[in-house]
């Protein structure tokens, strides 16, 4: 078969497959989620599977079943030529094996990994837990320690180069000094992160996992252990012998899966250096590539493919990191999923904000909605639109969703048959304890409004907001601060849209309750009419024998202070050089009527 014939056959089969999917979606009235329609990327997958002896399907530990493709595992067993002899181009039909590699396993607790281990063993799935981030951090820490012991510090080399090559201008010197300071800060942060990862791994092994014989079912494997697992899980290479290569000696490991599950990061952790480009945007790898891991193993990195599904929605795929966040057009549904999955206490503690939730009595649900979260986040971060100063919820949604994908807001799915709330209870307790410790150490909260303190619309925060981070989940504290937050939203230019009834009620509450003791003006002077004793011991006018709308009568405002005379007066003129005599009406002398 020639190359043109093979490509034509692949194109025809691909079009038939897409046509069958479309008919299935129409007949079953199911929603077909977005999937990869470019045949060139599917050809990359086919070539990787044909080359590989062991196909490693990498999934995200937060939702393994959503990233696992059972059809791919079935297709791996079908790859190969039926014929035998010298014409075999793809040997080993039915001999290839599959391995489910659960990446980002450091986000799960020991109990959560145990639950998933029981599920995989019950269904006969070969699996392994791994964390590319932890492996890369430990390798980097070991490399830095080795360089320190050998005296090969990068700082000394940079200093020597700076002494030899003196810059000509002072500006260049300042720029290089700033760059060096930034590099030093980055290195210090990387060292701290690597130390923290090492400590966390040691504490996990000592506290959570059994001290007896290490259980391979739930342990997060190291790089060396993962290499040994590849060799033990792979089929015998003699099953792939051909006339051209009667004695194959190199094991080919194919890494496949969805975008943004960590295929390239896993390869970099295995090799020990950055050989593959890594990006937070899904779909960074465009073409498959082979990398030599050792004399016996070769890795083959496949571009990430989005497989067609019928169960999940597009919002789920955005939250899972499959679809690019920066290219989404509708953000309310994904953020609403985040609000349902992450408790209010963790949202407020993570961002240091106060989320105003509409109660059931006011026509709301009593729970955090996407608009409540994004408005509070945008106000705290100063994200406003160009028109009317409203919160930029579209921009805020991208930050929140990226934090969710990067596990800053942690949520993991439980296996079928287990309640998600019970599954996440221990993880949430650890998160709340960590947040309480941060606020106890002096972490500050974000402002509730970007209105300046000297502005007329500024409202001081409630006393409950300054108690500290250890009580942000207290129901009494939330109820106590609601009037202040509502008044702030009613007065500030950054207030989100509300109904007319709510705006009127909030304005009344802010004016009459928070601004002063009296809801009406009080007049001082000799012509007060009936005098009534006030709380301060003086007298205040309760009734008047004449009109009170004259400038010579001093009146008090709602705050108890006398109003300025120019404001009270009815005869107000502009202070400019032009003078126009006031028009007077007709005046009659009254003569002739005596």
Short structural description:
The chain is of the alpha/beta class and 594 residues long. Helix content is 44%, strand content 8%.
Q: Secondary-structure map with pairings?
A:
Elements lengths: L2 H26 L10 H13 L2 E7 L3 H4 L2 H9 L18 E7 L6 H13 L4 E4 L1 H19 L3 H11 L5 H39 L11 E2 L1 H11 L17 E7 L5 H9 L17 E4 L4 E5 L12 H6 L12 H10 L2 H8 L18 H12 L11 H13 L14 H21 L34 H17 L8 H15 L7 E3 L6 E3 L5 E3 L12 E3 L8 H4 L26
- The residue-averaged pLDDT reads 72
What is the terminal-to-terminal distance?
A: 128 Å
Q: Major beta sheet, specifics?
A: 7 strands, mixed
The best one-word shape is elongated
Order of helices and strands: HHEHHEHEHHHEHEHEEHHHHHHHHEEEEH
If helices are DSSP runs of H or I spanning 4 or more residues, what is the number of helices?
19
Low-confidence stretches: 156-187, 201-213, 462-495, 514-523, 527-546, 565-572
Helix content: 40-55%
In percent terms, what proportion of residues is strand? 5-15%
Question: What value does the Rg take, in angstroms?
Answer: 35 Å
Q: How many strand units?
A: 11
The computed structural class is alpha/beta
Strand order, largest beta sheet:
4-3-2-1-5-7-6
Organism: Vanrija humicola (Yeast)
Biased composition (Basic and acidic residues): 194-206
Biased composition (Acidic residues): 151-193
GO molecular function: GTP binding; GTPase activity
Explain this structure to me?
- Among the domains are: 1-30; 325-497, no CATH class.
- Strands 4-3-2-1-5-7-6 form a seven-stranded mixed sheet, sandwiched between helices. It has a two-stranded antiparallel sheet with strand order 8-11.
- The protein is α/β, with parallel strands linked by helices and 594 residues long.
- 44% of the residues lie in helices and 8% in strands.
- Helix 6 runs parallel beside helix 10 (263-271), helix 14 (370-381) crosses helix 15 (393-405) and helix 17 (475-491) crosses helix 18.
């Amino acid at each position: 078969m020639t190359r043109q014939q093979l490509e034509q056959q692949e194109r025809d089969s691909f079009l038939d497959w897409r046509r069958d999917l479309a008919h299935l979606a129409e007949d079953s009235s199911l929603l077909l989620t977005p999937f990869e329609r470019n045949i060139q990327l599917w050809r990359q997958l086919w070539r990787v599977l044909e080359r590989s002896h062991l196909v490693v399907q990498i999934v995200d530990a937060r939702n393994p079943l959503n990233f696992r493709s059972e059809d791919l595992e079935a297709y791996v067993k079908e790859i190969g030529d039926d014929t035998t002899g010298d014409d075999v181009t793809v040997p080993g039909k039915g001999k290839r094996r599959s391995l489910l590699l659960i990446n980002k396993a450091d986000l799960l607790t020991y109990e959560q990994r145990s639950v998933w281990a029981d599920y995989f063993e019950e269904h006969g799935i070969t699996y392994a837990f791994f964390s590319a981030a932890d492996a890369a951090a430990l390798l980097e820490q070991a490399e830095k320690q080795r360089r320190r012991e050998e005296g090969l510090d990068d700082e000394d080399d940079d200093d020597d180069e700076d002494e030899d090559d003196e810059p000509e201008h002072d500006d260049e010197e300042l720029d290089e000094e700033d760059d060096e300071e930034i590099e030093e800060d980055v290195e210090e942060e990387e060292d701290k992160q690597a130390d923290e990862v090492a400590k966390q791994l040691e504490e996990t092994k000592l506290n959570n996992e059994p001290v007896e014989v290490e259980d391979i079912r739930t342990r997060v494997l190291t790089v060396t252990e993962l290499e040994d697992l590849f060799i033990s899980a792979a089929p015998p290479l003699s099953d792939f012998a051909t006339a051209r290569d009667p004695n194959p000696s190199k094991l080919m490991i194919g890494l496949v899966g969805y975008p943004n599950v960590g295929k390239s990061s896993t390869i970099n952790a295995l090799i020990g250096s950055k050989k593959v480009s890594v990006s937070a945007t899904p779909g960074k790898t465009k073409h498959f590539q082979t990398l030599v891991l050792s004399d016996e193993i070769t890795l083959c990195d496949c571009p990430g493919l989005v497989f067609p599904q019928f169960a999940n929605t597009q919002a789920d795929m955005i939250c899972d990191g499959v679809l690019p966040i920066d290219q989404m057009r509708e953000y309310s549904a994904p953020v609403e999923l985040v609000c349902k999955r992450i408790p209010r206490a963790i949202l407020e503690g993570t961002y240091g904000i106060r989320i105003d939730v509409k109660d059931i009595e006011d026509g709301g649900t009593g729970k955090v909605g996407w608009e409540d979260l994004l408005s509070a986040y945008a106000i705290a971060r100063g994200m406003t639109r160009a028109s009317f100063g409203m919160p930029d919820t579209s921009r805020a949604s991208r930050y929140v969703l990226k934090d969710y994908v990067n596990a800053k807001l942690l949520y993991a799915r439980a296996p079928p048959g287990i309640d998600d709330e019970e599954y996440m209870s221990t993880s949430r307790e650890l998160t709340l304890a960590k947040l309480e410790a941060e606020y106890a150490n002096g972490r500050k909260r974000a402002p509730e409004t970007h209105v300046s303190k000297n502005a007329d619309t500024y409202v001081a925060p409630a006393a409950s907001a300054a108690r500290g981070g250890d009580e942000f989940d207290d129901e009494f504290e939330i109820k106590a601060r609601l009037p202040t937050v509502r008044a702030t939203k009613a007065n500030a230019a950054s207030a989100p849209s509300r109904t007319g009834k709510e705006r009127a009620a909030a304005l009344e509450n802010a004016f009459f309750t928070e601004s002063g003791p009296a809801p009406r003006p009080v007049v001082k002077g000799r012509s007060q009419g009936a005098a009534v004793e006030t709380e301060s011991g003086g007298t205040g006018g309760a009734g008047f024998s004449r009109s009170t709308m004259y400038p010579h009568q001093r009146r008090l405002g709602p705050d108890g202070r006398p109003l300025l005379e120019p404001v009270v007066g009815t005869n107000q003129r502009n202070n400019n050089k032009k003078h126009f005599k006031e028009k007077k009406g007709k005046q009659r002398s009254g003569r002739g009527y005596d």
